[in-house]
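Ticket #4471: complex job returned nothing on first submit. Input attached below:
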Amino acid sequence: MEKEIICLSCPNGCHILVQEKEPGKYQFQGAKCERGDVYAYEEITEPKRVVTAVVPTSSDDMPYIPIKTDKPIPKKFIKPLLEKLYELKVPLPTKCGQILIFDFEGTGVNVVITRTFPLEIQH
Amino acid sequence: MSSKVYDVAIIGAGCCGASIARRLSNYEVSVALLERYVDVGFGVSKANSGIIHAGFHHPITSLKSRLEIRGNFMFDQLHYELGFPFKRVGVIVAAFSVEEMKTIEHLYAQGVANGVPRMEICGRERILALEPQLNPDVIGGLFAPTGGIIEPYRYVFSMVESAQKNGVEVKTQFTVEQGIHEKDYWIIKSKEGDTIKARYVVNSSGLFADEVSRNFGAELFEIIPRKGEEFLLQRNARGLPNHVIFPVPSAHTKGILVIPTVEGTLMVGPTAIETEDKDDLETTAQNLETVFMQATYMVPAISRREIITSFAGLRPTMEGNDFYIEPSKLQPNFIQVAGIQSPGLTASPAIGEYVKDILKQEGLRLVEKTNFDPLLPHSIKVRDLSFEQLEQLVEKEPKYGHIVCRCENVSESEIIEAISKGHTTLDGIKFYTRAGMGRCQGAFCTYKVLKIISRETGIPIEKITKRGNNSWVIYQRLQEFAKEQRQCQE
Amino acid sequence: MKERNYDVLVIGAGAAGMASALKTSKQGLKTAIVDREPYLGGILPQCIHNGFGVHLFKEELTGPEFAERFIQNVVKSDIDIFLNTTVTNMAVHQPIKQANLCSSQHGVFQINAKAIVLAMGCRERNRGNLGIPGTRPSGIFTAGLAQRFINIDGYLPGRRVVIVGSGDIGLIMARRLTWTGAQVLAVVEILPYPSGLTRNIVQCLNDYGIPLFLSHVVSKIEGKDRVEAVNITPLESGAPNYSKTFKLECDTLLFSVGLIPENELTQSAGIKINPETGGPLVDTRLMTSAEGVFACGNVLHVHDLVDWVSDEAQRCGFELVNYLEGKTKEIKQGRVIAGANLKYVLPNRYRISEKNRFSMRSLIVQDKATLLVRQGEKVIRKFTLRNIKPAEMFHVELKPEDLKELVVNGELLPIEFSLN
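Support reply: We reran it on our side without changes. The output follows.
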């Protein structure tokens, strides 16, 4: 098997050629740094992405609040995660950094709120 | 079916229908104004160039010329009564050759015969002094100071509003499909399933006048849509002239004009291309080229980089090229108002009067109302106020301080006013207030306008449309859509 | 008329406005910040994806998180905040500047300030600007408006979407829409290469099998009430080949075709505009043609990364403080010229009293390029640059020792940048 992967670790976007010599044994070519090989291996075996979305709240003042996964989550969990999010109703107030879902489906990935609302303006 | 029989049903709430309705609202008669679209003025009138012609383009032998001259004179009074934007900026016809100057002399003579006041034939120096934006190759031209510009949609809105104020009933989304004459009245059926009765019918249905006439068993004729594409350039655009600038006209069109709109933007167009489809409002790349080539020939400073939008309109033309305004010879109490192409907008106030007289001749009893109120309260526009005036206003009504459309400076109160007058689509709000008509074309204000419509009317955001029918703006809430998707899969 | 007096008025509370206001307020200047929207942060709160802050904070943040780093400081500071407030006009050619403001919340009032920072950001180019032929149905949005509908209001604008333009906003929206369950049928790009970052092509398009049509244009929009289809035509040798036009049935069309600095207020105040950037002309202090009026962020020139906006805005705040303290009232400056293969260089002036930081955009795509700086005829600096493309800004610094004090007619000799 041969596959070209574009590394997402940094804006360089190296094109890495992955060859599977025998089942489970891979060879990598083309990365400018070692992070590339690590990325390519992961991309072949279990690709992961950071997911960002919005979640409904219980208030009309701010009907949706943005969230993110605190680390990349395996791609196959993206759809179940998004579906789960639409079933929630987040109570206000929210704090940026607050954990909304802890360890989603045993992935070790948390869903974190990324906006504080309401803001307290102090003067 | 309601047993009420209206004295008059007017089919089509464009500039003619609106004007006829308002004229009749001065009398003790019951009037229904029927409109197929979601809002009035949304047919031919919406895409009008907004020019009040001086009246030198057509010979006095034509009906259209007589109504044009008369209509032009009526606009000062209407502007005073109704407050729609109107300015007599004057029009110029620019000539670039000796042959064209001969046409100018002809137009001048025609104008004088028609009774157009204060026209001038200008030499090069005079025409450039009047209009410094003109190509210096100009050799002379015609100047008619009585020509002007209006906002066509705002004009129709205010005519209809005034008519309503004086008792006319407006029925939108009433697409007339059939008329049956029974006893002494017409039974008018709509595609939407409504029916009304009226003793007299006025067919001012623009592009659809031929179909309506046929469906009432009246004369057979054909309306040929002639498409005009126009391009709108931003406020303070380069080359913005002081007057409406015409080229020397050809046999069937007044040509590509350069128009300083009454609200400060610059418009160029329209093209004149016959089409078969009454829904054909497409613009094409080729016509953009043509329009700009001709416009920049007259006014070289115009730049297509300043285009904010383009649109197309259809003129309802007819064989013979004159207005067709007369009682049907085949059916009783059926008045044809068809083939109203340019200068229909200019002529429209006079058409109102003319049709009123026809109805009278046809036996409609017209007794003047004692309580006719010609005046509308002039709506407040934040962009026209001084800062001091705005301060006083916002103290009384804070929502005038909330600028919803930053490009055209439209406040929340103005949007609410539009909604209260029945304009509940995005286009209705746009044409009433200008919110969304500026340089960003609604990128910043669309969501704010949707929210205000929803709040004021209770219509959910997903149900608000751009201009009725299937022109929805928002599909659904995210979580509702997710649910729908899941159900589809299951 | 109610009047309020400040040292500094900052117009716009996005990334640029907040960063500059924090700087001036921290130096003890009485600062007011004004924004039309009901919240701080400008466009950032709707940019919920990650990738912000890599340069400034050395970590990948989402837009709301990036904004929040500044918002929390602004609300804790002495800055007076006027939200839901519009500046309608200003008088700037006098020592004390006056701005007229109106608001449903704060009423109508005037702010008098010793200095003004313009930080109004930009707007999106739209269908009308491109002059795309066809009908004018509902369902045509700029990518930013669609982003706002989805990420702030939670509304999906349509189910079957075609995106015009392969800039990063367009690509991010392709993924965002896919995640909502909508179908993105294609991204159409007029250029032969994508305008956005490679990583966004991979993670926003390739991940979901969304086709990217390079060297293609939308040649026609169809649909009477709502968008029904678009015609897509390939460009061959720069011209559309209509015989190869194909049709995609869709209900929504998004435009991500560039940004325009929002300078109507600037122009109406009589401040000079640079036609290359669409923003005001600024000198080495980021001061516009009106003394005491500064500009930073996207209102000055459209940036590729918000990190550079914040960085520029902080410098702007710093320069403003120096100016009001009288340190830079009279400084010797020279013109800066954008030469071969450069769209523009900013600021439009340089000085020799301190270091100069320049931002610029290339007109060419090149793996490796040399940037030459000439003062008069003489080449005074060379920079080697990698991965140059029009979509990405780059920055260089010139130190006082790089430059000679060569004065012609009371001004320093112009310097010219050129790219080869």
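Chain B touches chain C through 62 residues (CB under 8 Å). Closing as resolved unless it happens again.
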